[in-house]
Prior knowledge:
By secondary structure, the chain is mainly α. It has one domain (2-87). It is built from four helices and no strands. The chain has helices at residues 2-32, 39-60, 63-66, 73-87. Helix 1 (2-32) crosses helix 2, helix 1 (2-32) runs antiparallel to helix 4 (73-87) and helix 2 (39-60) packs across helix 4.
Amino acid sequence: MIIVWYTVVTVVRAAISLEVFLIFARLIAEMLFPDYEGKIVDILYYLTEPIVTPVRLLLEKIPVLQELPIDLSFFVTSLVLCVILMFI
């Protein structure tokens, strides 16, 4: 039973780490090439958007953050994932 639990935890930790990496890759790709439309950007968007969107919608409800010129959803999502990673 311990081996199964260890395997599950390892897979979850790897998935969260990969998602954090993909979020940063998407952020860098969007900063360097804002109008670029290619397969890699589409894949990054497809893999990260389901996790970033709920955070973005939550942040849009905070009036102070609506006035900021930058999108904090990438940072907050990565921060939440890293905190989850610390507790697993």
